């Protein structure tokens, strides 16, 4: 079974390094256990467990060292503690004017829509009541409750 699962996943099972027994315990009342390696297991492997290991780190050291940046280059670098090159008025000016117009009817229509979707998902889940659809329902309902949480949090 395991070899079938591995072959279906595209993975080759590990090669056998012990011989397959030719007799069983039932037919052979005095079993003798001997290790008879197959010729394929005796050849050197270059795979996961090589015969000889090279424990060297193979790290090269630089021949020259880097010079520290000059004072001019240091001033051109990014400073995360410096104030940004824009202010809040610049951000507000970049947003179109129609985005600042408040419309309570449109806002409440989004709340009503989200609550209707929550009740609709619950009705669909109760109607089908299939164990295959429950994870989909949990994900969808969790997303809608998260949307309601965001609306309440921002309110």
UniProtKB/TrEMBL annotation:
* UniProt keyword Cell membrane, yes or no: no
Describe the location of the Fatty acid desaturase N-terminal domain by residue ranges: 1-123
One matching Pfam family = DUF3474
Q: Name one GO cellular component term.
A: membrane
Provide the GO MF annotations for this entry: oxidoreductase activity, acting on paired donors, with oxidation of a pair of donors resulting in the reduction of molecular oxygen to two molecules of water
Q: Which InterPro entries match?
A: FAS_N (IPR021863), Fatty_acid_desaturase (IPR012171)
Write out the transmembrane intervals.
110-128
The UniProt keyword set, sorted, is: Fatty acid biosynthesis, Fatty acid metabolism, Lipid biosynthesis, Lipid metabolism, Membrane, Oxidoreductase, Transmembrane, Transmembrane helix
GO terms (BP aspect): unsaturated fatty acid biosynthetic process
From the UniProt record, give the pathway where this protein acts.
Answer: Lipid metabolism; polyunsaturated fatty acid biosynthesis
Q: Where is the protein situated, by its record's location annotation? A: Membrane
Matching entries from PANTHER family are given as:
OMEGA-6 FATTY ACID DESATURASE, CHLOROPLASTIC (PTHR32100)
Instruction: Give the UniProt family note.
Output: Belongs to the fatty acid desaturase type 1 family.
Protein name, entry field: mRNA, clone: RTFL01-09-P13
Species of provenance? Eutrema halophilum
